[in-house]
Amino acid sequence: MTRPFPPRSRSLDSLPGYPMAGIPERRRELEEAGVDVIDLGAGDADLAPPPLAVKRLQEAAEDPSFSRYPFQLGLPEFRRRVAGWMGSRFGLELDPFQDLLPLIGSKEGIAHLLMAILNPGDVAVYSDPGYQAYLGGTVLAGATPHPVALRPENDFLLPFRELPERVLDKTRVLILNYPNNPTSAVAPRSYLADAVEFCRERGIVLLHDNAYSEMAFDGYRPPSVLEIEGAAEVTVEFHSLSKTYNMTGWRLGWVAGNRELIATLSRLKTFVDTGAFKAVQAAGIGALDSWKDWVPQNVEIFRRRRDGAVAAFQDAGFQLKPPRATMYLWIPVPGGRPSRDFARQALDEAGVVVIPGAALGDGGEGFFRVALTVPEGRLREGAARLRNLSGG
Ligand SMILES: Cc1ncc(COP(=O)(O)O)c(C=O)c1O
After folding, report:
1. Which of 127, 237, 242, 327 to mutate to test the pocket of ligand 1 (most atoms within 8 A of CB)?
2. Average pLDDT score over the chain
3. What is the CATH number of domain 10-48+293-387?
4. Atom 6, ligand 1: which residue's CA is nearest?
5. Cα-atom radius of gyration of the chain, to the nearest Å?
6. Which atom in ligand 1 lies closest to the alpha carbon of residue 177?
7. CA angle, 207 as apex, 204 and 209 as ends, to 5°?
8. What are the domain boundaries of the chain?
9. Which of 91, 117, 303, 325 could be disulfide-bonded to 179 (CB atoms 3.0-4.6 Å)?
C-alpha cells in the first residue's frame, strides 16, 4: 500500500486525546490492588431519573408506533411541552415547530450547529476551560477555535469585549455557558444582555449552553438568554434533560431561539441522524411534567452534597467558596503545582479521582474539578483523603 491506511481526516487528527486519558486504566489497577477508589470525576449523577419518565418510557416501549423513525419533527407533544416549559420557566413564547428542535442530547446539537454554520477561516470564540463539543464542533467544521481563558479575576466570565479586532473580524460564533462547567460561575443578567448586544452589533451568533439552568441553589434561578430583548435575532440556547433529571444516558435535549439557525441545524441533522428515540421523547414529557414537584428535591440533594463537600474540602486545607449552581466544585490546586500532577497524586496516593483543570483546556490550569455525583459521605471521605496534598 502506498497511501496511509486507514485514512484519517486532518481535522479529526488535530483534536486532542480524551481529557481523562490514563485515568481509567490507573483506576482499574488500583482497584485490582484492593484500593477503594472514590470517583469525583464524572459529571454523571448516581441518582435515579423521575419515576414518571421511567413509566412513560416503559409504556412507550410497549407501543410499536414509538419504534418508528422520529425524524427531526420528533414527537409533536414533546415539542409542545418544551415550549410550555420554556414559557412557564422563562416567560418565553415559542412556536413549538419553528423556535425549537429536539436533540439527541445537547452535545450532539452543539457540535452539529457549529458544523452547520462555520467555514474554514471562520473563528469560534469559547471559554477555556470548556466543554469538549465547542472545540470538537469548531475543528470538525474546519474553522478556527479561539479559546479564551476564564479567570477568577473576571469572576470566570468570558471577557468578550477585550477580544482583539483581528479576531473579531473573523468571529462568527460566541459560545457561552452559564451556569458554567467546570468553574460553577454564574452570569449576571447584565453580562448576558451585553453579550446579546455585542453579538447583534457585530452579526455574531450567540450560542448559549444552558445545560445547568435547573441545578442552582440558595434561591438563585439562572435565566435564559432568550429572555433578553432582541436575543432571538442572534441567539440559540441549548437545554438538556441530562443534569436536571439525572438522565445523562437517555440522550435528550433541545435547542431554542433563532428560527433560521434552528432550520439550518435541522437541515444538517437530516443528513446525519434521524432524531431521538420517540419513546425517550415520551419519557422527556414525563420528566418535564415532573419538573415542579420532583426537581426541587433532587436539587436539594445536590445542595446538601455541596455544603458537605465544601466544608470538608475547606477543613482539609483547600480554598473554596460554595458555588451557586452546577454540580461542580472548582478548587485551586495548592502550591501552584500543575493540575495533572496533582490529579495523578490524588489518585495514586489517596485513591481519589478528580479532574485536572488542564484536561478541560489550558485555561483550566491551576484548578481541579470535583463532581458532586457521589453521596455526601463519599465526598467528605474524598476530601479528607486529600488533606495531605493540600499543603494546609
Ligand atoms: C456544559 C455542558 N454542556 C453540555 C453537556 C452535554 O449534555 P448532554 O448530555 O445533553 O449532551 C454537558 C455535559 O456534561 C455540559 O457539561
Report:
1. 242
2. 96
3. 3.90.1150.10
4. 107
5. 21
6. 1
7. 160
8. 10-48+293-387, 51-290
9. 325
- State the pLDDT at residue 23: 84
The Cα-based distances of 58 to 66, 78, 102, 227, 254 in angstroms read 11, 16, 20, 35, 22
Determine if ligand 1 sits within 6 Å of the CB of residue 345. Answer: no
pLDDT of 391 above 90: no
Question: Mutate which of 126, 243, 327 to test ligand 1's pocket (most atoms within 8 Å of Cβ)?
Answer: 243
Query: 0.90 exceeded by the pTM?
Result: yes
Q: Which residue has the cell 473563528?
A: 123
Instruction: Fill in the amino acid letter for 181.
Output: N
| CA 253 and chain centroid, separation | 11
Does 51-290 match 10-48+293-387 at the fold level?
no
Distance from the alpha carbon of residue 360 to the mean position of ligand 1, in angstroms: 13
Residue 313 near residue 167, CB atoms below 8 Å: no
Contacts of 156 (CB under 8 A, 6+ apart): 150, 180, 183, 185, 330
State the CATH architecture for 51-290.
Answer: 3-Layer(aba) Sandwich (3.40)
Percent of the chain residues past pLDDT 70, beyond the cut = 99
CB neighbourhood size of 100 (10 A): 24
Exposure string over 108-141, b if 16+ CB within 10 A, otherwise e: bbbbbbbbbbbeeebbbbbbbbbbbbbbbbbbbb
Q: Is 222 in the pocket of ligand 1 (CB under 6 A)?
A: no
